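hiii, so i know i said id send this last week but things got crazy w the move. better late than never?? heres the sequnce for the chain we talked about at the cafe, plus the structure i predicted for it. fair warning i was half asleep when i ran it
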Amino acid sequence: MNHRKEQGRIEVWFLGEVDDESKYPNISIQARMPTSGGFGRDFGARFFLDSPRAVPEAARLLLNVSHAASLEHS
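okay and structure toks below
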């Protein structure tokens, strides 16, 4: 997770892949640029949290996608 002092947003990188982006219509999921390290391979997507209204949907995405993927990696 990353934050910027100049912008009212939080950048969230997450583990796993979203198979149906329509489940999260208020979150713009973006692919990560390829890297050679494990973090870049596993954390392949991100989104920006720009509004407190999007927090419940972001939490659902992280629980359903990233947490589930973390269980597979353990």
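btw The chain has a mean pLDDT of 81. thought thatd interest u
miss u guys!!
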